[in-house]
Design brief:
Layout (H helix, E strand, L loop, with lengths): L1 H33 L6 H27 L8 H17 L3 H7 L4 H18 L2 H30 L10 E3 L4 E7 L5 E5 L12 H6 L4 E4 L16 H14 L6 E6 L2 H11 L4 E7 L19 H14 L2 H7 L7 H11 L2 H22 L9 E8 L5 H8 L6 E10 L2 H4 L1 H20 L7 E3 L1
Parallel strand pairs: 3-4, 3-5, 5-6, 6-7, 7-8, 8-9
Antiparallel strand pairs: 1-2, 2-4
Helix pairs in contact: 1-2, 1-6, 2-3, 2-10, 5-6, 8-9, 9-13, 10-13
């Protein structure tokens, strides 16, 4: 009768050892990512995570030897594999091109490791303890499969390519631009955070029936090549102006910016004031916005950590999964192309970098001169708006003495460009600015709720 009791204590101890090791293996990658690897980009963030997981497995081996009579020395294998790989990534910090090459390699050994772990756990770990380890090994296998599927999907997806006539050299890199319609002034559409030309697939054709309209992808986004330097407000304005001139689309321009795209518009208007005839702000971020103030730009900030982790998550298929559940009224081919763009580590990296710069861009935009008496149409989407958003929109309406403010109670921020109803409201606002410029008449100056 004493034998079962004698065996129960070591088994219970092993269960606690496994639980503690898993908790450490879960928390340590977060700690390493938040501190020493924070702001280090995809390779260092991924390396920190692997190192943390490796330490968790090493702890399982060490504690089981020290505190139980059921040593789990096999755990040193995943500890060594993950730990050494993590140290290499943190130390050498390979760039995106190397990480892209490694994406063709790592899923196979990781899947082999997961299968080996399942066999070892079944053989070496008794009772309830193995059921703590099975989900962890399952996640490892899912990461391997997800990484392989994502790599193949990116390589075989032809929807992200751009024809040569749509890529224009602006000095060191090429940007994608798509224009349609005829007439003056030329409307230039500026997308929001991480948004490219495809987001205006409903708006551009509607505006093209009235005048010339162009949508483009900022450097590093969509079909455009990445720039070598930082993409702050002045750099984006210079790129856009060079793109418009090189593609044969001359002013005067009406700039229409959605969301964070509205923060870039003032830089272009300030740099090329004689070429900007009017502005349309589509539920645009205000220079006085507080949404990103708490995020800051410190590499030790959690938002910096999130930005660095995004490419790694995209590399195992998380971004593709999230993009696949998004709904909108965009044409099917455009939605498919947009999902293909947003699923890539490149898109995730560009989004993160742009987000981290947004705070400084908003600050700088707030110091730029107003539009004077040039036509300004402010469009506000109220459905789902946060507290303080209406006040910020009202302040945007003070940037010109020639203004019209249109408020839509039943349209959301994203719906303003992604739904038929929202796109119609946005297009009507842009056309109103075009007509004001053409006729040389003032806007109505009112705030109208619809």
């Amino acid at each position: 009768m004493t034998i079962p009791n004698a065996r129960r204590t070591p088994t219970r101890r092993l269960f606690l050892v496994v639980a503690v090791s898993l908790i450490v293996g879960f928390l340590l990658p977060i700690v390493l990512a938040l501190w020493p690897a924070a702001g280090g980009g995809e390779s260092r963030m991924t390396g920190a995570a692997l190192l943390g997981w490796g330490i968790g497995w090493a702890l399982l081996a060490a504690l089981s030897v020290r505190f139980t009579d059921q040593p789990q020395r096999w755990a040193l294998v995943p500890a060594g594999a993950l730990g050494v790989t993590g140290i290499a990534l943190v130390t050498f910090a390979p760039g995106p091109s190397v990480m892209d090459l490694l994406a063709w390699v790592w899923p196979v050994p990781v899947l082999v490791l997961a299968v080996w772990l399942i066999l070892r756990v079944r053989r070496e770990v008794p009772g309830r303890s193995r059921w703590l380890l099975y989900p962890v090994v399952g996640v490892l296998a899912l990461l391997a499969v997800g990484g392989a599927v994502e790599t193949v999907a990116e390589a075989t997806d032809g929807s992200r390519s751009a024809s040569g006539s749509q890529l224009v050299d602006v000095g060191g890199h090429k940007l994608f631009i798509a224009c349609s319609g005829t007439g003056s002034p030329t409307v230039v559409l500026e997308g929001g955070l991480g948004q490219g030309s495809d987001y205006f697939a409903l708006i551009a054709p509607a505006v093209a029936t009235t005048t010339r309209v162009c949508a483009y992808d900022r450097a590093g986004h969509g079909r455009s090549e990445a720039a070598t330097g930082p993409q702050d407000g002045p750099a984006i304005a210079r790129d856009l102006h060079a793109l418009l001139v090189a593609s044969g689309n001359h002013g005067p321009y009406i700039l229409a910016g959605h969301s964070a795209g509205g923060a870039y518009v003032p830089f272009f208007a300030a740099a090329y004031p004689t070429e900007v005839a009017g502005v349309v702000l589509l539920d645009a971020m205000s220079p006085h916005a507080t949404a990103v103030r708490s995020a800051g730009q410190s590499s030790e900030n959690p938002m910096s950590t999130l930005a660095g982790a995004l490419p790694g998550l995209a590399r195992v298929g998380v971004a593709r999964l999230l993009a696949s559940v998004a709904s909108n009224d965009l044409p099917a081919d455009v939605s498919a192309r947009r999902r293909a763009f947003e699923a890539t580590p490149r898109a995730a990296s560009s989004f993160g970098e742009e987000f981290l710069q947004l705070d400084g861009i908003l600050d700088a935009a707030g110091a730029l001169p107003n539009l004077g008496d040039r036509p300004l149409v402010v469009v506000t989407a109220m459905a789902g708006a946060s507290n303080g958003w209406p006040d910020q929109q009202d302040r945007l309406a003070t940037l010109s003495t020639n203004v019209s403010h249109r408020v839509f109670e039943d349209i959301t921020h994203d719906g303003l460009i992604e739904t038929v109803t929202g796109a119609r409201a946005a297009s009507d606002a842009i056309v109103a600015a075009v007509m004001s410029v053409r006729a040389g008449t003032k806007l109505d100056g009112s705030t109208a709720s619809q």
